[in-house]
Amino acid sequence: MRKVLVTGFEPFGGERLNPSWEVVKQLEDLELSGARIVIRQLPCVFGKAIDALNAAIDEVDPMMVIAVGQAGGRADFSVERVAINVDDARIPDNDGNQPVDRPIISEGPAAYFSLLPIKAIVNGLREAGIPASVSQTAGTYVCNHIMYGLLHRLAQPSCKVVKGGFIHIPYLPEQAAAHPGQPSMSVKTVLEALELTIAIALHTEQDLRVAEGATH
Known about the structure:
Blueprint: E1 2-9, H1 19-24, E2 31-32, E3 35-42, H2 48-60, E4 64-70, E5 77-80, E6 82-84, E7 111-113, H3 118-127, E8 132-135, H4 142-154, E9 163-169, H5 173-176, H6 187-203
Parallel strand pairs: 1-3, 1-4, 4-9, 5-8
Antiparallel strand pairs: 2-3, 5-9, 6-7
Helix pairs in contact: 2-4, 3-6
C-alpha cells in the first residue's frame, strides 16, 4: 500500500501545545483513499527539523509528504504556495537559535513552489464549508524552513516522493482563549480539512486554474 507522510511540530514560542501535532497525531495509521497515513513530530529547531524530516522520508518511503504548522493569527486553513530560501527568525527556535538572513540551502534556488494541487484543495475545502485559502507566504521561521527543505529534497532526481507541500493552521480555541481577539479553529474541523486535503491531493493530477492571488 502506498504511504503518505504527514508531519506536525512540537510546541514553540511559549505555547503549551501545537495545533499541528494535536491534529496530525489523530491520523496515525489511518487508511485514506488507498494510502496509509504515517505521522511524525518534528522539532521546532532550524536544521534539526530538516534532518528529522529527511530521516522520516528515508524510513517511511512515502509517495506524498504534507507538513503542517501553526500560524497564530490566521483565520483559515492556509495552503502554502511557495517556500523561500531564507531563515530570518523573529524569535529564537526551541534550541535558542535565531538565524538572520541565512540561506536554508547554500547555492539552492531562491524559492520552490508547492507540489500539491493547492487550488483544488482550497476549492474542495470551501465546498465542504471549511474556511480555506491559498497563502502566498509561509513566513521565514521554521515552517518555511521545513517547506523549503522538503521541496529541495523532492527536487533531487533520486527522490521517489512525487507530491509535497505545507499547510498552516490557526490556533486551537484553547490557545486563542489566551490571546484575546485571535481567531481559532477546532481540532475536529482541522482534522476534517486535513483528511480532505490528503484525498484531493492523492486524486488530483492537474490543479485548477482559478484566481487565488493577492493584491498585497
